[in-house]
Amino acid sequence: MEFITVALAGHIGTITFNHDLKCNCLGRTLINELIKGVNELVYEQARVIVLRAHPGAKVWSAGHDIGEFPRPGRDPLAYNDPLEQAIRAIQRCPRPVIAMIEGTVWGGACELAFVCDILIGTEKTSFAITPARLGVPYNPSGILHVLNKLGGALAREMFFTAQPVTGERAARIGILNHLVPVAELEDFTYALAGQIAQNSPLSISVIKEQLHILSNALPLSPETFERIQGLRRIVYDSQDYLEGQKAFLEKRPPVFKGE
Ligand code: LCV
To answer: Closest residue (by CA) to atom 4 of ligand 1?
Structure first.
């Protein structure tokens, strides 16, 4: 595979992002390989999967590949978008996925990390939720994942400011399960993975699926869903939606006009 590596030691699988040149951004190729790697490890009887970047990585993942945003006027995070497929693959994986996070996490990569079962970080970890910086409306399932993880107050702050939350604060408010020194991150993560691997994989897979079903058991009327979609269309039909991506690719601050 080109943009990830997959390894299995005993019952502990590891998937490592391997696209440092592009800050491990979540493009179609990397995501297809990630999903394939998860399926391979489950087939090979992994009982827990660690999702990580290379040791010393400055960026764990820079989120959706901005160069792959869909054409203007198309839903930027539609159901079959590769990023959405990756998020569902992690949620539906019958094995616990531990996000071992050294480095910064941006945009949709925050959501990908948030749907992992356990998050372990260091003082070099940070999370920045960036749709507002790019002119993107995000999407209902993603907002629900963030709400479930952060609660309303912090979700609003992170969506509206698009500013990073440090690892220390992330641990204090419960985004991270554990904050450990960089030098201890690997040992700590794999020791915890070892504890999981000793337990019943069948019991864990059924408990994980129940947690997933119940955390998404929010009934939405068709009318409510249609209203949300109408609101999102206003944004991805806008000039601001184009400006966000254009500014990033031209390496300049965006100039949003609210239209
Ligand atoms: C493509 C990239 C990216 C990238 N895509 O290094 O949440 S939503 O709704 O917005 C969702 C749709 C989403 O996830 O959108 C993407 C959100 N991500 C971001 O806003 C982060 C964008 N990236 C950055 O702000 C910087 O790259 C960081 C802070 C991650 C790293 O900065 P640093 O100065 O260390 P560069 O910016 O120079 O990036 C190195 C290379 O990676 C590419 C970037 O274009 C550059 O490529 P070139 O060397 O060809 O110029 N890159 C980084 N992020 N998301 N490409």
So the answer is: 65
Q: Which atom of ligand 1 is nearest to the CA of 65?
A: 5
Tell which atom from ligand 1 comes closest to the C-alpha of 64.
14
Nearest to 18 by CA among 32, 3, 29: 3
Strand order in the sheet with 4-9: 4-9, 12-17, 48-52, 97-101, 118-121, 178-179
Distance CA 18, CA 91 (A): 22
pLDDT tens per residue across all 259 residues of the chain: 899 999 999 999 999 999 999 999 999 999 999 999 999 999 999 999 999 999 999 999 999 999 999 888 889 899 999 999 999 999 999 999 999 999 999 999 999 999 999 999 999 999 999 999 999 999 999 999 999 999 999 999 999 999 999 999 999 999 999 999 999 999 999 999 999 999 999 999 999 999 988 888 778 888 999 999 999 999 999 999 999 999 999 999 999 999 9
Q: Is 158 in the pocket of ligand 1 (CB under 6 A)?
A: no
- Of 64, 107, 145, 241, the active-site residue reads 64
Distance CA 114, CA 85 (A): 15
Closest CA to ligand 1's atom 17: 107
For the chain, list the domains and their CATH numbers.
4-215 (3.90.226.10)
Tell how far the Cα of 206 is from the centroid of ligand 1, in angstroms: 37
Measured by CA distance, the residue closest to atom 52 of ligand 1 is 22
